[in-house]
Amino acid sequence: ICSFSVSSRMQNVGEQGHMALLGHSLAAYISVLDRERLRKLTTRILSDTTLWLCRLFRYENGSAYFHEDDRDGLVKVCRLVINARYEEYASEGYAVLSSKQPVIYQSASGRPGLGQHLCSQLGLPLSSLCTVPCNTIFGSQHQMDVALLDTLIKEDIEAGKLPLLLIVNAGTPGAGHTDKLARLKDVCDQYSMWLHVEGVNLATLALAQVTSAIMAATRSDSMTLTPGQWLGLPAVTAVTLYRHEDPALSLAAGLTCSQPVARLRALPLWLSLQYLGHNGIVQKIRHATALYIVVFFLSLFLLMVASSGGSVEGYCAGDKEVLDAFNRWLGEQLVQLVPSSGVDVVELEDEGTCVRFSPLLTAAVLGTQQENIEELAEKLAQLLPVMCSTMCLRQDFREETHRHSPSLAYIQDLSWPGLGAVRYEPQTEGMDESRRKQELEKINTELLKKLQDLDTDIVFSTGPEFGTEEHCVFIGMVTEDVDVSELVDTVAALGRDIEESGRLLENMTEVVRKGILEAEQQLQLANEEKLMEEGMLRQLPLVGSVLNWFSPFQSSIKGRTFNLAAGSLDSTEATYSTKAQTEPWVPLTLYTSCLSVVSKGQRLFRRSGAGSESFSETSSIGQAEDAEESQESSLHTPVEEEEVTSEERQPEGQEAEPSGR
């Protein structure tokens, strides 16, 4: 399954993808040309690619920096701004930063770890990083709070710091929201700050119709693009477009390179853009945006459960962790069922675990089509009712499990996406801790096997692979028509039967041991009695045979037979007198109870037939009594009929002949 899911989500490499891969091989061949020809060719490739990207994404008079790590362009931009704002930085280095500490501002909804990476690469302390919270009252909860940003900048200026750069999002990594770019640009102009934009929504700048919120990104000082994701091009570099008039500072910051070989990084993208053309590029981005109507993420799932009419009491504590587990399960199921859709699971600060569908990031890579989206919606419609019903029944499952205490113990595991977990607790009085653990593991392992053998669509397992709970039975998702009471009753009854079966086996072992000792004692007594009755001469081999021939001796010593079922040592006299082996009847209550549980488990625990078919202890005992009566009738009735028939067949006045004639 793992190999299938991985291969099914591999990048869809079409002809344009092969063209990009060909660019890497071609770059290696071009690098061996003589220096002058290499310089001219790389300059042409770099200038053409920069011009095409600036025109395509409406970024006039821009320069381009091509980089493998999509964070590297922002690092180089920060160095450019530091060189521009600190005139003596080129000669004095980081010493000039101590007079006015630079401050880099980023959104709380930005890429995790991006600010820390910048400080690490630039040699700045983490105090130079300021994370601006998002809106809490007005607007989207994933957009930067502009008013609060203005307040933070004023406070830093009063503290003698230098506001250096602001990082904003045109499509946050988690929820895909766009900051108020126009207002943020005005704030940056007011305080002479550099504005850098990144995000997946920048791809829509290539379309004919662009929203004003995204169009404001063209006023920024720099932006980072990832055309490889948007166009489905493998191993293509990211691009940072920027505007700056001093080429010397750009060279000092590393945004331009004098080495011709380094400029060949743009060759795979250059070939791909040539192959696709303007119309092909726009078509791919338009196709992805057309799929955007199915964007969703589930964070307030508890509201859905409440609206379904289920019982949600008891979820005040830990309900967020439960919802995260259910949403994580939903995302993983959708990834396996519809791998070409490109859905994934993301963690948001306020909402928690959510399911994200961002076709601008995945549609071109995975080749997502409209039928994949329709299949995704269909699978989602199938999974949501199961999630709702399971969430509703979790509390009922907990209460039913507590009702069977102390034989059943409810296991609280908020990270389990299912009905819940339960452990059967056997009676372990007088056992040491090691023996108790062995008994607990043995019974619950056997209980899990028996539950898995039942003909039901409910999944029973040992729980998460790296879970902390041991020797438990974890129950997965269930539908709304599942009878939780019957399910828990079955678990309790199966566990009890397994425990009693183990004790019966232990008791039988003890009975056999005692029976052997008793048999040895009776055999010894029988030998002594035989010696006293027959005398010493009859024990001699030759003399005894001759003496028995002349004077036969009828011994009064009877044989013995050991009855395993009854655990008793009986005489064989009845066997030899009736010429048939007879056994005392043993109740089969335990076996009948187990059989009843299995047959009821095959009913799929459905509530529709609970009135007449649900398993209960009373019905189990009643079935056992019926079995006893039927077995008694089968043991005694045929004998009585045979006696009556034999008497009727005898002529009047005659006695029946012995059956042994």
From TrEMBL:
Keywords: Decarboxylase, Lyase, Membrane, Pyridoxal phosphate, Transmembrane, Transmembrane helix. GO terms for biological process: carboxylic acid metabolic process. The lineage of its organism: Eukaryota, Metazoa, Chordata, Craniata, Vertebrata. The keyword Magnesium does not apply. Belongs to the group II decarboxylase family. GO terms for molecular function: carboxy-lyase activity; pyridoxal phosphate binding. Residues 646-661 have a biased composition (Basic and acidic residues). Residues 608-661 are annotated as: Disordered. Residues 611-622 have a biased composition (Polar residues). The chain crosses the membrane at residues 289-306. Residues 401-503 form the PDXDC1-like third domain. Its cofactor is pyridoxal 5'-phosphate. The gene is pdxdc1. InterPro entries: GrpII_AminoAcid_Decarb (IPR050477), PDXDC1-like_2nd (IPR055103), PDXDC1-like_3rd (IPR055102), PyrdxlP-dep_de-COase (IPR002129), PyrdxlP-dep_Trfase (IPR015424), PyrdxlP-dep_Trfase_major (IPR015421). Pfam families: PDXDC1-like_cen, PDXDC1-like_cen2, Pyridoxal_deC. This is Pyridoxal-dependent decarboxylase domain-containing protein 1.
